[in-house]
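Ex. 9. Protein: Nucleotidyl transferase AbiEii/AbiGii toxin family protein.
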Amino acid sequence: MSGRNIAASVKAKLLSIAKESDKTNELIQLLYSQERLLYRLSISPYRDYFILKGGLFLYSVTGFKTRPTRDADFLVKNLSNNENRMIEIFKEICSIEVEDGIQYDIEGIKAETITEDADYHGIRVTITSFLEKSRSQVQLDMGFSDVVVPNPKDFDYPVFIESELPAPNIRVYSLESVVAEKFEAMIKLSVLNSRMKDFFDIYNILTTTTIEGRILSEAIKETFEKRLTDIRRDHELFTDEFVDEQKQTQWLAFLRRTRLPEVEFSYLMSKLKEFLLPVYNSLLDEDEFFGTWNPETQKWS
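Predicted structure tokens for Nucleotidyl transferase AbiEii/AbiGii toxin family protein:
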């Protein structure tokens, strides 16, 4: 089958998937572009240097049933935090020929320095992809200094067209480190926090995943130390006052924008408190935490 015919066939299948999943065709094509870029990464010499994290990782773990995301977050290990170097690497990755209908604008790849919460610098790479004449903008945000507890693991990334295309096998974060980073942002930003996606993501994890408290505690401790974030008693995050009118308005706007099922923000915060506060208190008291989180009962045991 010619490249043009492959692209047309893929495009038709993605359109069918979009209709069945009640997602826009534009979003499905973007997710497909991300998937095929991850596949090229997985067969490149750079596979082990890029560790997928954040929303796209969580979205893929659930088989694309939770919060959709339009960018991909990575922790980069053993490569320089240099824009030109990242452009060179992704030019090489995007040049790998795969019969999946996707073409990347190799000469148009751009990189810029980004600052997350004014604490550390990363790099954002933007790549334009084409499926026939349909265009998507793939955004990759990369950090260079975080810790992962436990160590990264191999992961078979789910694909849209399973019977026809090989799946990316990539390196990914631990869920404990995902929770730790999002929790650290909640503690640091406190009442100024408008990142509702972090609240949803932790809620999604605690309702679906068994978590070992000892590992989570270690991940939180190391993440806070790496980002120079203090652990202090009586934090506003765990108070009733945190669930104010402004936060509830932000939460409802987030749910509408992402087309997610409605969950009361007060209920969500009560569950986050049950999940995170015992671990947080153990760190305050410099105690080890050995509980196991049960997603069915939503309690530590």
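Check your answer against this statement. The mean pLDDT is 92.
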